[in-house]
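tool_call: predict_structure(chain=1)
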Amino acid sequence: VENRVVIDSSFATRDLVRVLHMKTNYYVLVYSEYKARLLEAFDETLIKEYGNPFPIENSDLYSSNTNELKNANRQQHLLLEFYNRIDKAVNEIRNNNPKPVLLCSQLMNCAEYIKVADLKETIFPDYMKGNKLYLDANTIIREAWQVVRKQQFEKNRLRKNELEEALAS
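tool_result:
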């Protein structure tokens, strides 16, 4: 928003409202079965990468026992518990600064994470697919912005259609 002076009997808020609808603050949760990172972004700009408790490493929720490795249910349970711990850590940060979350992982991991997520409605419906854990944070955010921008565009288009329908009736 550019600074400007408006002398009128009301506030000039159009530019502020436009920015609120065009710009997006969000988190990107980059994770795998073994590790998770949390990034905060504003459009295509990295705001910060969270430390403590991130990065979270899966150091105790896996089995090296051969018999347990053969037990798919046991492995699934351990994985879901790790994702649950990640979700709790993300939500603790979001309590102070609520924003939507974009998941970045293998497609199967995203589906599993959604199963244990507490605030499913605040997770973007599209995901960033692929293992990007070891990429630079700025590179991840540039890729994430491509996904978020499409979602934001679609959301604004639906709002516009709703307004047009309301005006027509």
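agent: Strands lie at 25-31, 35-42, 45-49, 56-57, 101-105, 128-129. Proceeding to next step.
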